[in-house]
Amino acid sequence: RPSNFPPGPRGLPLAGYIPFLSKLDPEYPHLGLKKLADQYGPVTGFYLGPSQPFISVCGYEAIKEALYNDDLAGRPNNAARRERTFGQRLGVVHNDGPEWQEQRRFTLRHLKDLGFGKTSSEGLIREEIDDLMDEIRLQSWRNQPVDFKGMFNLSLINILWALIGGQRFKRDDVRLARLLDIVDCFIHSANFTRANIPVPTIFLRLFPSTTRNFLGLRNDLFTPLQDFIRDRIQEHVTDRSDDEQRDFIDVYLQEMTKRQSEGDSSFHENQLIGVIIDLFIAGAETTSGSLGFALLYLLHHPEIQQKIQKELDQVCGDSLPQLAHRSSLLYTEAALMEAQRLANITPLAVAHKALRDTHLQGYFIPKESIVTVNLFTVHHDNEFWKDPEMFRPERHLTPDGRKLIKTDHLLPFSAGKRACLGEPLARNTYFLFMSSLLKAFEFRPIPDRPLPTLKPKNGLTLGYDGFEAIVTPRT
Ligand code: HEM
Would the CB of 350 count as within 6 Å of ligand 1? Predict the structure, then answer.
């Protein structure tokens, strides 16, 4: 250990702390790392194997410092991660340096031009809400319970795919079902901390499935998704025109042509596939998990559901809520914030990496350290929230209920240079789906059955377990 390295457990020679990682908390890595913070302090350091430093950052002060230190805005780079994108470092989520900057800026700018997070995408989101409501009406016919397992993923992939590829899928499209399975299986078979263990490429080549299972990185699942995206890109190549840019693929292809004539360029077909896979993986499960957990909390708290519905009726009258209503729907907004705080969909964000030697809370952080920010510990900060385990929307409102309290103790999308790229779209989607569903329907638990569990399904993000509810139209 270099001098002034953060305090933490020693582990074994050569293996470092690897054998003990899963023992910290067998189910949830963020809870395991929190235990280390309780013992060693907010910045804890240990080694994965003989030479890979791992820094776990917990608590508001240390996390804020880490997120705004640009030296910590890199991403781990290992062979297992590169497998997802043809053995190269591509895309936005697992990239860094000038290539990441260029791809992130381009993606964000052009998705915004296409309506990402603006009112112009409201129609697109509304179309998916209408379709989802039809499905709920169909399932709830004659008071049958509605099954919410995987219910939202399809709508969310459709919103993303409309912006990226200019199409939407039907609910019974088998290609879509397969893509959704891939995303779900990849995210929920993964283990956040083990995924960072540096495994040499030779092991991946010689024992691919053992290594993937050990790391919890099932990159082999991506082949059909890559093929699907490549086919759609080829369709765009043949039928696109320079005069009309229908979607993100058109815009990207145009940039590719322009840049390639200029020589060396980070814009190429495999890069585009990497970016699209990132948008799918980062965008669908996170938003779907947020919606599922918000509904679950409201099944557990019918009085809060009624209060939201009362506000929706007062503000929106007979119509479904729109983005324009948002600033008047303060209680609804507070309840949605509270559900995000408690659900902790991304409790450890995405792993960061130290791009150069730096310091955090006075400790020395060596270049190439993997750094995790435990957002869960901010959302469950006893001192700040007082009763963090309680679902209490009022905590996000001033005492007279007339203003929302915005605080950076609520960080579902993280912060700093690496903050979520999809935040504007995610916020609008989350608000429009939840408010529309609650305006149109009442959600109740199934009588004589235990309330559905709030215990999250583990993985790279925390998901809700499938649940059923009685859904009745509101008059
Ligand atoms: C409620 C839904 C969402 C939540 C809670 C969420 C949360 C997050 C978090 C915590 C990070 C990691 C930040 C860090 O490393 O410090 C992240 C990164 C990212 N998110 Fe989201 N996200 C959501 C929706 C979306 C959507 C809809 C998209 C795309 C359309 C998206 C695209 C991305 C991308 C591309 C990154 C990587 C950014 C980078 O590394 O530069 N996310 N998100």
Answer: yes
Distance between Cα 421 and ligand 1 center (Å): 5
- If DSSP states are collapsed to H, E and C, what string results for 404-454? ECCCCCCCCCCCHHHCCCCHHHHHHHHHHHHHHHHHHEEEECCCCCCCCCC
Neighbours of 323 (CB within 10 A): 16
* ipTM over cut 0.90: yes
Per-residue pLDDT, 210: 81
- pLDDT value at 32 more than 90: yes
Half-sphere exposure of residue 123, counting CA atoms within 13 Å on the CB side? 5
pTM for this model (two decimals): 0.95
Instruction: Name the average pLDDT for the chain.
Output: 93
Residues 6+ apart with CB under 8 A from 355: 70, 71, 72, 73, 74, 96, 97, 367
The pLDDT of residue 114? 85
Task: Output the CA 153–ligand 1 centroid distance in Å.
Answer: 16
Find the 359 Cα to ligand 1 centroid distance in Å. Answer: 26
Q: Is 58 part of any known ligand binding site? A: no
The 10s digit of each residue's pLDDT in 336-357 is 999 999 999 999 999 999 999 9
Task: Give the atom of ligand 1 at the shortest distance from the alpha carbon of 419.
Answer: 13
HEC states along 163-210?
A: HHHCCCCCCCCHHHHHHHHHHHHHHHHCCCCHHHCCCCHHHHHHCHHH
Domains annotated for the chain, with CATH where assigned, are: 18-473 (1.10.630.10)
Query: Is the per-residue pLDDT at 313 higher than 90?
Result: yes
Q: What's residue 169's pLDDT? A: 87
284 lines ligand 1 (CB under 6 A): no
Amino acid 214: pLDDT:
76
Query: Rounded to the nearest whole angstrom, what is the distance from the C-alpha of residue 1 to the centroid of ligand 1?
Result: 33
Query: CB of 422 closer than 6 A to ligand 1?
Result: yes
Minimum mean pLDDT range among 116-130, 271-285, 364-378? 116-130
Ligand 1 touching residue 103 (CB < 6 A): no
